[in-house]
């Protein structure tokens, strides 16, 4: 398999479940650790129930069900696992390529904090949809900063 294809495969596996890509990369300890962290956070935050309730439109119930103290750990573990998987697969060698992951984790965490208060066009988005939307500014800022820093440092 080509290196670029491996990197894409690893990020897709990491999106599906943090830790799987590490196992594919031969990093068993890290993979098992990420899976254990994901499982622990998922169970204690009631994340699967939050997702289920959000998908059937019961946003208020999903907000009530959420354990925010646990849920706020999820973005950091999730994006760290993605970055680590890409790095171990041979991607991410470009300087500052971690910035989109860092900023996405920050923005999603902030999105979780404010998710029970934010509405979009009068619609409450809740603890699943609003943090997912917060990935977009995280990626935009992360990629923009990476580009700006690279131009200033390497030019």
Describe the 3D structure.
- The chain has 155 residues and is an all-alpha fold.
- Strand 1 and strand 2 (123-124) form a beta hairpin.
- The model has no long low-confidence stretch (mean pLDDT 92).
- The protein has one domain.
- Helix content is 75%, strand content 3%.
- A two-stranded antiparallel sheet has the order 1-2.
Overall residue-averaged pLDDT value: 92
Strand order of the largest sheet: 1-2
Number of DSSP-assigned strands = 2
Q: For this entry, what is the oligomeric state of its chains?
A: single chain
User: Roughly how many Å is the radius of gyration?
Assistant: 17 Å
Q: Helicity level, as a percent range?
A: over 70%
By DSSP (H or I, 4+ residues per run), the number of helices equals 10
Class computed from helices, strands and strand pairing: mainly alpha
* Tertiary shape: globular
User: Unreliable segments (pLDDT under 50, ≥5 consecutive)?
Assistant: none
Gap between N and C termini: 34 Å
Measured by DSSP, the beta-strand proportion falls in: under 5%
Largest sheet: 2 strands, antiparallel
Task: Estimate nothing, just give the exact number of structural domains.
Answer: 1
């Amino acid at each position: 398999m080509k290196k670029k294809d491996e990197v894409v495969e690893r990020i897709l596996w990491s999106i599906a479940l943090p830790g799987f890509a590490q196992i594919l990369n031969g990093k068993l300890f890290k993979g098992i650790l990420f899976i254990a962290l994901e499982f622990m956070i998922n169970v204690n935050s009631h994340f699967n129930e939050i997702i289920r309730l959000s998908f059937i439109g019961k946003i208020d119930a999903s907000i009530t069900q959420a354990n925010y103290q646990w849920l706020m750990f999820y973005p950091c573990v999730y994006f760290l696992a993605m970055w680590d998987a890409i790095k171990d697969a041979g991607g991410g060698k470009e300087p500052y390529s971690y910035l989109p992951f860092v900023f996405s984790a920050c923005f999603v965490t902030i999105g979780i904090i404010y998710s029970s208060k934010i509405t979009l066009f009068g619609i409450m988005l809740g603890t699943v949809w609003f943090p997912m939307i917060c990935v977009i500014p995280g990626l935009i800022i992360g990629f923009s900063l990476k580009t700006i820093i690279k131009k200033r440092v390497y030019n």
